[in-house]
Amino acid sequence: MGYVMELRKLVGSRPLILAGANVIVLDKENRLLMQLRQDNNCWGLAGGALEPGEKLEEAAKRELFEETGLEAKELTLFKVFSGEEFYYQYPHGDEVYNVISTYICTDFSGELKMDQDEVQALHFFDMQQLPPNISPPELPIIREFIDSFN
């Protein structure tokens, strides 16, 4: 997140358009991996901002590993999301308009190990029993995925 922090020093909390990637991880029982975020106390997907020169798929794999300890062996692009509903204001005041490439991962290795700075908990949820407090910019992504999955 070094690049974004450098930009924030220049523009403050004004809205930025941020490109990033996240990952829908499904286990063998088709349960969805979610993380309880430190910053907003909401559940969401592993993911984050693109660093300069990084490919979106690389960002997705990097963020998945950093936040969950899992290594994606294969990713499939689900969809790219953008628009007004992906505006978000972080609890500390920074504003963003997210452009998010969402990938699906069913082939991964490793043991769950959360990043203590960003993640409070990691849990695989049945798609029909998701927690109520889902991070606002990820809620439409998760809804669309579940609709397409059924």
Order of helix and strand elements from N to C terminus: HEEEEHEEEEH
- Please tell me how large the radius of gyration is: 15 Å
The general outline is globular
Number of domains: 1
Low-confidence parts, pLDDT < 50 over ≥5 residues? none
What is the CATH superfamily?
Nucleoside Triphosphate Pyrophosphohydrolase
* Secondary-structure-derived class: alpha+beta
Number of strands: 8
CATH topology category name: Nucleoside Triphosphate Pyrophosphohydrolase
Mean pLDDT: 95
Share in β-strands? 35-45%
CATH class: Alpha Beta
Number of helices: 3
Which CATH architecture? Answer: Alpha-Beta Complex
Q: How far apart are the termini?
A: 35 Å
Major β-sheet profile: 5 strands, mixed
Helix content: 10-25%
Provide tags for this entry.
globular; 150 residues; five-stranded mixed β-sheet; three-stranded antiparallel β-sheet; Nucleoside Triphosphate Pyrophosphohydrolase; alpha+beta; 3 helices
Walk me through the structure.
The protein is an alpha+beta fold. It has one domain (2-149): Nucleoside Triphosphate Pyrophosphohydrolase. 23% of the residues lie in helices and 39% in strands. The protein is built from three helices and eight strands. It has helices spanning 2-11, 56-68, 139-149; strands spanning 16-25, 32-37, 43-44, 46-49, 71-81, 87-89, 95-109, 119-125. Strands 1, 4, 5, 6 and 7 form a five-stranded mixed β-sheet that branches. It is globular. The model has no long low-confidence stretch (mean pLDDT 95).
